[in-house]
Design goal:
- The protein is an alpha+beta fold.
- It contains 20 helices and 11 strands.
- The chain folds into 3 domains: 48 residues, SH3 type barrels; 269 residues, no CATH class; 134 residues, no CATH class.
- The strands form 4 sheets. It has a 5-stranded antiparallel β-sheet with strand order 4-3-2-1-5.
- Helix 8 runs parallel beside helix 12 and helix 13 packs antiparallel against helix 18.
- The radius of gyration is 31 Å and the shape is globular.
- About 22% of the residues have low confidence.
């Protein structure tokens, strides 16, 4: 086994993969098996480098001293090499036009070199948007250091050219004639494709890695079935564990599985209708943009018309309540079959189509998180379709079925006030999501996570059957509340919805057009990606104000169920845990994506979700 050359904590110069540039790094650790050094850059990025890609700082200083010591001799030799009086002046008769052409060619060559270097510096560090914020300009005492540059904004390209040319001595003697030549989109795009022609392996495993994801494949369905069984008990106390288990044969009903298939393909039919606008998603790693048809709200309206027609012809929608467990089992079986299909087809997918978070090479982990980023059958995007349609709209239909079941079981002419509140609050949430469907294209579910068991089970089982837990609970455990209490709960839900919607709208409007005069009051920190981090408005209050609104709404959905049991509040507990996990993911990815700019943002906005608490 070869001996390591560099010790932990030693400051060295590390070459960035895919480039010829060296940056100051600190050795963090060394792997004896792979013989790779884990080094940390000044902006916090950690990478594994080979020993051949690392050099000591003394070698760089030695080269610089050699260069500076040779300069006087070169200058003196050039001065002593004067033309002999008898030697003819060869170059004097060259025409002035030829001289200008020669200078123009030389200038063009230098400009192309500047372009390649600038794009390389901007794009060589891989991240979600393929850009990275670098360390700041060195102090006056460190002008010879080869540390990275801070690319402050896309809107200031002249400043970045000046910095790159000054540090790497590529400045032409005369100013460039055309800035458009430097920023040729064709050359930049070709450089991006060259750097990103391969999809890197997933190194950081989430959810407990292989063991954690293996356990979640069994734990998630078990949790859903446990909650549904508990809601059916006369006393759904957590102390009554385990609940009496039904016979296995009673959990499966072919009619319910057929009903679920009918529901799924009906929503697929609505998705394929040529109504609604077509928009482009964010650019993929190869620069391509997928197209998406935005017609989720139209699908909701058509579904409402279909359900209304069934009720007009006296179809017993409360049948879902009597066979709710069988319906959930059918959805779970379908989601498992869909996950297996997705993983098998992902094995033949091109490397560039794989998900950044689901390309670990481990079967269980990739199966759970999703191996392929955007699996499509023709133009039918499976992940995008399942994200909002079958589960989210199905949630509203299930709530309606529970409302009708409550009226029938308790012989009521009208639904109870708590049931009305739960249905109304959650209906508002779903309609808002479908109305603002385009905003989902920028979420991590679409841009980062693959489509595997996690999203398939979450979209088709967890959302419709766990999110409807309050309505399912109220059917068997009616609760009475007064009108003043109902009014207070309604105000609480409105506050949560206002924070949720206004925060998301503020972010989406700023992303679309930061120069909008209506947003002139917003202040932001520029980043290397060309985007800005808002430090005023809702996003200057806490880092994730939309999560704060989500949690307030979740509490308002559970309060109508009373306080006799904790079961209806499972959704609140789950939602807090989910959002804290998502917040941790967001923090990690934003740290990688924005570098030092994110650290500055965290200093300006110290609270993550709950002001003055967390």
């Amino acid at each position: 086994m070869p001996n390591r050359r560099f010790a932990d904590g030693e400051v060295v110069m590390g070459r960035w993969p895919g480039s010829v540039l060296y940056y100051e790094v600190q050795v963090a650790s060394y792997d004896d098996v792979s013989h790779l050094y884990t080094v940390k850059y000044k902006d916090g990025t950690e990478l594994a480098l080979k020993e051949s890609d690392i050099r000591s700082q003394s070698s760089f200083k030695h080269r610089k001293s050699q260069s500076s010591s040779s300069s006087p001799s070169r200058r003196s030799s050039s001065r002593s090499r004067s033309r002999s009086p008898g030697r003819p002046a060869r170059g004097r008769r060259r025409s002035s036009s030829q001289s200008r052409e020669h200078k123009d060619d030389k200038k063009k060559t230098i400009q192309e070199s500047n372009l390649a270097l600038l794009v390389l510096v901007c794009l060589s560090k891989p991240s979600e948007n393929n850009t990275r914020r670098y360390n700041g300009e060195p102090d006056k005492t460190e002008r010879n250091d080869t540390s990275c540059l801070i690319l402050e904004q896309k809107s200031k390209p002249d400043l970045e050219i000046e910095r790159v040319l000054e540090q790497y001595s590529l400045r032409p003697r005369k100013e460039e004639k055309k800035k458009e030549e430097i920023y040729s989109e064709k050359k930049i795009f070709e450089t991006i494709k060259t750097i990103e022609k391969t999809s890197p392996k997933t190194k950081e495993l989430e959810f407990g890695g292989r063991i954690g994801t293996f356990m979640l494949i069994f734990f998630l369905p078990a949790t859903v079935f446990y909650l549904l069984l508990m809601c059916k008990q006369d006393d759904p106390s957590l102390m009554n564990f385990p609940p009496p288990l039904p016979a296995l044969e009673s959990l499966w009903e072919a009619r319910m599985f057929g009903l679920f298939l009918l529901w799924f393909f009906l929503q697929a039919l609505f998705y394929l209708l040529p109504i609604g606008k077509v928009v482009e998603g964010l650019p993929l790693s190869n620069g391509r943009k997928l197209q998406y048809r935005i017609n989720g709200f139209y699908a909701f309206v058509l579904t409402a018309a279909a359900i209304g027609t069934l009720l007009y012809f006296e179809f017993e929608l409360h049948y879902l309540y009597d066979h709710f467990m069988q319906f959930a089992v059918s959805a779970a079986v379908f989601s498992l079959a869909l996950s297996i299909y997705l993983y098998i087809r992902s094995l033949k997918a091109p490397e560039e189509d794989l998900a950044p978070g689901g390309n670990s090479g481990y079967f269980i982990y990739d199966f759970f998180t999703g191996h392929e980023l955007n699996p499509r059958i023709g133009s039918f995007d499976l992940k995008y379709f399942c994200e909002l349609r079958p589960g989210l709209i199905g949630w509203v239909v299930i709530n309606l079925a529970m409302l009708l079941a409550e009226m029938k079981i308790h012989n009521q002419s009208m639904p109870s006030l708590p049931m009305i509140l739960v249905n109304s609050f959650q209906l508002l949430y779903v309609v808002d999501a479908l109305w603002n469907e385009e905003a989902i294209l920028t979420t991590m579910d679409i841009t980062h996570d693959g489509f595997g068991f996690m999203l398939a089970f979450g979209d088709l089982v967890w959302v419709p059957f766990v999110y409807s837990l309050q309505a399912f609970y109220l059917v068997g455990h009616p609760t009475a509340i007064s009108w003043p209490v109902a009014a207070a709960i309604t105000i609480l839900n409105c506050i949560g919805y206002y924070i949720f919607r206004s925060a998301n709208s503020q972010k989406n409007n700023f992303r679309r057009n930061p120069a909008d005069p209506k947003l002139a009051y917003l202040k932001f920190i520029p980043t290397a990606t060309g985007k800005g981090l808002l430090v005023t408005g809702w996003w200057g209050f806490v880092r994730h104000p939309n999560y704060l609104g989500d949690i307030i709404m979740a509490l308002a959905w559970s309060l109508p169920c009373g306080f006799n049991h904790i079961l209806p509040y499972f959704y609140v507990i789950y939602f807090i845990c989910l959002l804290v996990h998502r917040e941790a993911r967001d923090e990690h990815h934003c740290k990688q994506k924005y570098g030092l700019a994110w650290e500055r943002y965290c200093q300006r906005v110290p609270y993550r979700i709950f002001p003055y608490i967390y």
